[in-house]
Amino acid sequence: NAGVTQTPKFRILKIGQSMTLQCTQDMNHNYMYWYRQDPGMGLKLIYYSVGAGITDKGEVPNGYNVSRSTTEDFPLRLELAAPSQTSVYFCASRDRASEKLFFGSGTQLSVL
Amino acid sequence: GNSVTQMEGPVTLSEEAFLTINCTYTATGYPSLFWYVQYPGEGLQLLLKATKADDKGSNKGFEATYRKETTSFHLEKGSVQVSDSAVYFCALSETTNAGKSTFGDGTTLTVKP
Predict the structure, then answer these.
(1) Are residues A56 and B98, on separate chains, in Cβ contact within 8 Å?
(2) What's CA A80's distance to the chain center, in Å?
């Protein structure tokens, strides 16, 4: 009964480093999303995907990239980390029938 | 574009008090409306939803009614418990356009014994 699994839970990066946040879901959902949550703020959509091989930009895509080679996996790539990318990142998938979003437990990223 | 506005927090209540968290929205078309709850260190979980005007969503003693005329979806609970302490997010979801969701900024609720 895994749902949406994100790794890692915590990470500290130096400015200019790169990393990939992993996200996997086992519910066979076509729709998946990456959000960032800044302190005291709501969630901002970074990228989303409506199925394998199809991705598109959300509100705040700059500095990020995604891929969707399978239905299960939706990794988020940071190429050149900047302090402005310090945030908590959430991956989510959506059940099309119920419109319910299922969230991972989040990745807390600090860029120093 | 779409937007969701929640009452500013934080909100602090005593156990068994009545809770209201206001939420209003702006949207084109006919969105579905949601309340999500986030406990410390966790991702958001769906609390309740409503998909059309005058629908009432309810779960765990929480309720919210989809009011199209006032573009509102206020969250209420008659008697809060310490375990209800969390951050509450109002959200809307487009039924088309990949089901993208727009979230409010969240309201932190603390319930004291």
Answers:
(1) yes
(2) 16
